[in-house]
Amino acid sequence: ASSKQLNKVSKFLSFVLRHKPEAIGLELDTNGWANIDDLISKANASSEPINLDRTLIQEVVDTSDKKRFIISDDGQNIRANQGHSINVDLQLKPVTPPEFLYHGTATRFLNSILQEGLKPQQRQYVHLSTDIETATAVGQRYGKPLILKIKALLMHEQGFVFYQSENGVWLTESVPSTYLISQ
Ligand code: HQG
Question: What number does the ligand 1 atom closest to the CA of 148 have?
Fold first, then answer.
């Protein structure tokens, strides 16, 4: 498939697997998995102009730069690795973070973030990365990027829980502003 097609399917999968499965009448289990055959038939029966098949889904999974999706070992189910707004239990284990993690946002959010800390907004978790490059790319989606450095290890020592998704994104429920260093 062309990269344009793959991108379109990737966005569609993000939409139904992270945010709105009911848009096509799909159900995710408590751990966020969708049955692939069910996903294909419901996507193709929906009003969305999308034509899915297994090969295409596999190609999106294999070529996703961020490894956004994972197919279960038995090949029957698919889920998003992170980014959910719906309440799913990814069964992630708490892990000790590195001393610092980074969050990319837009400069216009700084005042609010300094007042309220980082909040997950529509998603289940605040998304953090180990490197400034990733954080910059994330922040750019919303405007002039601003990189915040987070005292992650200190947070962990003070009782905050961190997780790492299957594709390496660091997740935590919130970051009070006392742990933020503006870069
Ligand atoms: C901001 C993409 C004002 C926060 C990315 C962010 C990531 C506040 C926005 C993943 C705030 C939420 C997640 C506060 C947080 N006041 N603004 N108190 N607290 N914010 O999209 O981290 O490509 O939900 O800084 O790469 O941008 O889709 O989170 O700007 O990994 O796979 O509120 O989504 O992955 O935006 O992005 P988002 P995010 P994919």
Answer: 25
